[in-house]
Each structure stands twice: as structure tokens, then as C-alpha cells.
Here is the input.
Amino acid sequence: MNQVIELIKTDVKKEKPAANALGFGKHFTDYMFVMDYNQEDGWHHPRITPYAPLVLDPSVMVFHYGQAIFEGLKAYRTKDGRVLLFRPEKNVARLNLSCQRMSIPQIDEEIVLDAIKQLVEIEKDWIPNEEGTSLYIRPFIIATEPSLGVHPSREYKLMVILSPVGSYYSDQLKPVRIYVEDEYVRAVPGGVGFVKTSGNYAASLKAQEKAELLGYDQVLWLDGVERKYIEEVGSMNIFFKINGEVVTPKLNGSILGGITRDSVIELLKHWNIPVKEAKISIDEINQAFQKGELEEVFGTGTAAVISPVGELKWKDTTMNISKGNNGNTLANRIYEEITSIQLGKAEDPFNWTIEIK
Amino acid sequence: MNQVIELIKTDVKKEKPAANALGFGKHFTDYMFVMDYNQEDGWHHPRITPYAPLVLDPSVMVFHYGQAIFEGLKAYRTKDGRVLLFRPEKNVARLNLSCQRMSIPQIDEEIVLDAIKQLVEIEKDWIPNEEGTSLYIRPFIIATEPSLGVHPSREYKLMVILSPVGSYYSDQLKPVRIYVEDEYVRAVPGGVGFVKTSGNYAASLKAQEKAELLGYDQVLWLDGVERKYIEEVGSMNIFFKINGEVVTPKLNGSILGGITRDSVIELLKHWNIPVKEAKISIDEINQAFQKGELEEVFGTGTAAVISPVGELKWKDTTMNISKGNNGNTLANRIYEEITSIQLGKAEDPFNWTIEIK
Ligand SMILES: Cc1ncc(COP(=O)(O)O)c(C=O)c1O
Ligand SMILES: Cc1ncc(COP(=O)(O)O)c(C=O)c1O
Here is the structure.
């Protein structure tokens, strides 16, 4: 494509929120990236433009038929003031995978990656400095054809917005309590669970509400066919350490191929810690727990990086996993290593980070 | 609630499209209905206001997490100039069912029904006169909280827009050719297939594209667990007439409870034609076909009312059903009866229609 990204400047600058008031995805920076699609011109007019509301006809397809996909990644500020992205090319590739499943025209990954870099460069003053904070990057595509016929939209907008964020969970490495959901289903092979389309998240809200009502933080989804194999958590993949070996559900077409998940697997291999991807039933996990072999459970995702699981509730069984989070867990070691790479504090043997300058 | 609907007038009137240029959901009338939700005021400020674009922050939740639901119904103009709605209270009740599953606050059904009536009354000149045309009514709710956290939105907009439409399918009673999908899955029990949420339609696009590529008009979905039980068509429920008896898949939690489906069942009972709701496998249908007992197949839905199916393609099997659509089919008889009720040409023993005045 090789299109030049236009920059439309603004002098209006918002006040930056205090570090302790960041939250997640509540504040947005001064600029955003926008690119349009129509059938004549394909993806065209890439531009960085002042952050502003969208003006959309009430009939645009995203409101009615949910043709919408997104990504999530972060920019980090290092101690010495450099700006790093973590494996952004993976997010852009996954955006295209989502495009493909959701009948959205493919994007030029290079131009979107370039857009992310330029936008973050312009907005680098928005990257907070404090421990656990970062600049969250949200690329997304919405269907904008004004039409109520059910068919792939003939018009789209790709946008990138930026939000300075604190940690997603208020207490970063505090173990979370997870409810194993056996009534609601998130996704099924042949469906859209393996891509980041908006409807997957809407479909998960009811179960999340139920879990919170019962006093849990998050939901662990089981497969939708046999209702016994482990899939993933709300917006995290999940790992189990059993008898010294680490196992995570294999990518089966209904769970998201998380980039943190992939990084954790690579890191464990690098450390020569046994790790495998497999079909795991909740029964097996419970058996391991009953035998005293379930050593650790943790979730992985961009928002929290690593999130230790302290308790799994499955029907009448309560599995208490964290016997005191003494800081010597594998979860903590992985968290330390990945965040150190992200923050430029440790070497990056995998070439995961990209510096923006 | 008992809220008064405010009317915000406009003198700007669009030109009405010619009957042969209507299409489906391409043209919209001069007014729309809007009502807002926030946590302090609940659903508030119901108003009929000039049709106009929405101004929405790029972070509003509908773009990212697909919390959006909709309905579809029609207003018809009778020969003697009256305006009729067909079972609108059913659509409003189903909207609330969708709210419930998608964690959207319940609406006051009376006020929404009232809004639909008032809006159609104001826009009655937009109802086209020609055979097969009507005014399509699209109520919908979108999540409008500007936030990237995954949780039920704390702000919503409920809107109703109106579109004068021709028949959804260009040739009304021309039998459609249907591809039985055995790779992609639309919905599964425990999921959201039984409500009208936007993501269900986005998830169906890929299979629809595939069917069209293979030369078929629509997809027939099989269940997502065993991949053998019949569910429904893209936006229609499905009926089979086998050996004089009519059967349609029973509502199992993954298919939509169509209002046309319900009306057809009531009508058949009224006519003393045997009809049942049951779990039906595609195998059974094929066996009936091979034995020469599959007499008719038809879809039911608001858009086309009744749509005869001429061919079912399942793996290597082609079932040719319509042995010449000679006008003596049950599908045609049902179509005639329901459209006659809708257009005020026949008596309405079921009290299905509501006159607007
Ligand atoms: C459903 C789901 N699973 C897993 C993940 C973790 O993926 P990643 O590590 O790429 O952030 C996410 C978040 O992106 C998600 O939304
Ligand atoms: C998935 C689906 N199934 C069935 C139907 C038919 O329902 P109704 O008869 O209420 O229009 C529709 C259309 O509303 C639909 O979207």
C-alpha cells in the first residue's frame, strides 16, 4: 500500500490524569488514528487526527449486526525514558485473523503497525511513569455502512485510541478467585471464540455478573460441547502447574491465542521448565488438586500480564491453590521476567520489544 | 414509568423513494425515537426527534464489546388506508428478553410500544402502498458508556428507526436454495443464540458468504454440539411438512423464538393441521426426502413472512423439494392468510393486529 499517514494537528491539549486516578480505559489522549474503507478505494486516508467523537448514522451496521473487532497492547516507558512496545506485530497479525473470520477486508499490517508507532511517538508524554502503569493501545475496526441488510459491511473505520492505564486489577499480584462456569457458554468450535470480536465480550457479561454476585472475581469457561474441558478466563488464558509441569489448554478453535500465553510458553521453554499445550478437563485439575499436585494456577493477558489464581470454585468443590503467595512462585518469576523485558530492565533475548523513536 | 414522549419537530422533510427503489433498510424516515439510560435516572427522556447521526466517543462500549440488541417488525397500510402493526407487543417483550441475557437494564414495555405507535403515526405517509412493501420498524439498544473495561455498560441509548421497504427477497415466493452448514456454528445452548444480539449476526456472515459462493441463497444451521440437529436459517425459523404433518425445531435455548414461527404454529392449530415442535436431525429430514415424504420446507420471519425452500444441500446430498411451486402449497396458504391479516384483508381471529390512529 505504502500510504503516507497524514497528521492533522491540534493545539487543544487535555490535562493528564494523576497516576492514582488512571483506572483502565477511562482517559484518552489528544490524538487518534483513523483509516477508512470503502469498496472503490479499499483502505484509504490513514491519518492521525485530534481525538474526537464519531458521527454515525443510526443505521450503521456495527450497531445492529456487531461486525466489530479489536486488539489491545501496551506502550511502556523505561527508567531511562525510552518507549517500548511489546510484540506489536503479533497484535496486528491477530487483527487480520479477526478480519478474516468476521468477513472484514484484510488490512495492510505494515501500515497499521506504522500508525501505532507514529501515534505513540506523538503521544509519548501521555505514558505514565509509575510502577504498573502504561499506555494502553486499542486498535479497532467497526462496520460503518448505513444499511439494515444482513451482509458484510461495505464500509469500515479502523481506529487506534490510546489510554493511560493503571493496573487492570487494583492489586497486581493479589491472587484472584475464579468461578468455573457450568451453565453459560462463551464459544464453541466453528464459532468466533478464537478471534477478538466484540460479540464474544457481550456474550460473557452475564456469567461475569453471576460470578461477582457469588463473590468471585472472574469466570473460567469450560468448552461448550462437553462442558468439561478448560478453555480460558474472561480476558486471560490460563496455566496450571501440576507436579512441576506446566500445562495450558491447546488452541482448539474456540479460545483466543493470547500473545502473553505465547510469550509464557516461550519463556518456560527457554528456562527448561516442562510446558505443554493440551486438552485438559476440569476433572483432571480437581484430581491433581485432591492429590496435592496442583501447585499453581495463573492467568495470562496483556492487561495484568500474569494473574495468580488463589481459588477455583467448581460446582461444590473449592480448590484453594495459593498456600500463601510468598513471592517464590513460578507465576511471580514469570511476571518479573516479562515485565522487566517490557520495561527495558532485563535483556530481551527473544526480541520481543520494539523501541519507538 | 408513565413518561411523556417529547416531540421535537422538524420542517426538513426528505424525498420519499420510489416503490421500486426501496430495497431493505436503505432509506430512513424523517423522525426517530430516542431514550437514554444512565444509573441515576434509569431509562429517561423518551423523545421523537429528527432522524440524525449519533455523536459517540470512540471508546463507547458498543464498538468494543458488542453490547447491542435489536428487534424488527413492520407497519402495513391497508387498502382502506388504515395502518396496522403485527403483534408488536411480542417484539417489545422479546427486546426485554434480549436485555436480560445481555445484561442490559429492562425497559418499560408499555412506553416502548407507545413510542413505536406514536412514531409510526407521525411517519405514516412513509408507509408505501405497493404489494409486498411495508414500513420496517427497527428498535435497538446500544451501550454508550465511554469505557474500555469489560463490564455491563452503565449508559445506553434505545432508538427506533423506520425504513420503508420492498420485499426482503426480490421475488417473494420464489423458492430459495439452502446450504446446510456443517463447518461453522452459529450458537450453542448456554450462549446467546436465543436472543437478538448483534454478535449473532456478525458470527453468521462467514457461512453466509460461503453459501453464496457455492451458489446458495441462505444457510441452514445445525446445532453446535452434535452438529446434526436442525436449528434455523440466517434470519428465519424453519418448518418441514412430512407426510402431512408439520414440524419445526423446538426452542432449545440456541435458536430465536420467531414471532412468525409462533403465528404459523397457532394458525396451523386453528386449521387443524397437525404441527409439532421437536428435535429434528438433518438425517431424519434426508430419510423423509429419500422416502418421498418430504412434502414442503419453508422459512418464517418478519422480513419475508414465508419463504419456500426449493433445495437443501447437505454434504453430498441434494434434496430437491419444490416440485413446481404451483400455488397449492401449505406455504402459500399460510403466506396468503398471514399477509391478509397483516394487510387487514382477512379477519383477524387471533387479535394479532393493532390499528394505529
Ligand atoms: C478472551 C481473551 N483471552 C485471552 C486474552 C489474552 O490475550 P493477550 O495475552 O494477547 O492479551 C485476551 C486479551 O486480549 C482475551 O480477550
Ligand atoms: C436469527 C433469526 N431467526 C429467526 C427470525 C424470525 O423471527 P421473526 O419471525 O420474529 O421475525 C429472525 C428474524 O427476526 C432472526 O434474526
